[in-house]
Amino acid sequence: MTTDQIPFEQFREEWLVDIREGDPSTTKLGHRFARKLLCQWLDIEDSSDDLVYCDGAGDGGIDIAFLHRGEGQDAEGEGRAEGHTWYLVQGKYGSAFAGATTLLERVRKLDLRSAE
Fold first, then answer.
1. Angstrom distance (rounded) from CA 61 to CA 17
2. What is the value of pTM for the model shown?
3. How wide is the angle at C-alpha 52 spanned by C-alphas 46 and 55, nearest 5°?
4. What is the CA radius of gyration of the chain?
5. DSSP line for 29-64
6. How confident is the model at residue 76 (pLDDT cuts 50, 70, 90)?
């Protein structure tokens, strides 16, 4: 191990410090974890209007959704078409998650009108 490397356990504990700060509810922990993961992974601002927090009965355990808006095309179709992509982050697995069908059911319930 070189001097600029730290053990995974130490990295994990340092990465989780601000997520665990205070006495957050399990819902808040899930939101904080999902937000940090998504923002660092996709290099987006945590204040983005395209981040949608999910909370409540029937959310399938999904903590946050992010809409990546694809590039549009002109009428002649020049350039490469790229559609919108939703990223869904489920920061926990428990009774809210009952397999792949749970995720598909929850995705159908998302309000996609904001993507228009």
1. 22
2. 0.65
3. 115
4. 18
5. HHHHHHHHHHHHHHT--TT-TTEEE--STTSTT--E
6. low
Distance set, CA 29 to CA 21, 22, 91, 104, 107 (Å) = 9, 10, 9, 24, 22
Cβ atoms within 10 Å of 34's Cβ, excluding its own: 25
Q: 44: Cβ–Cβ under 8 A, 6 or more apart, which residues?
A: 38, 50, 51, 66
Asked if pLDDT for residue 115 goes beyond 50, the answer is no
* C-alpha to C-alpha distance for 80 and 114, rounded to whole angstroms: 23
Q: Is 79 exposed, middle or buried (0-12, 13-18, 19+ CB in 10 A)?
A: exposed
Contact between 67 and 15 under an 8 Å Cβ cutoff? The reply is no
Three-class SS state of 71: coil
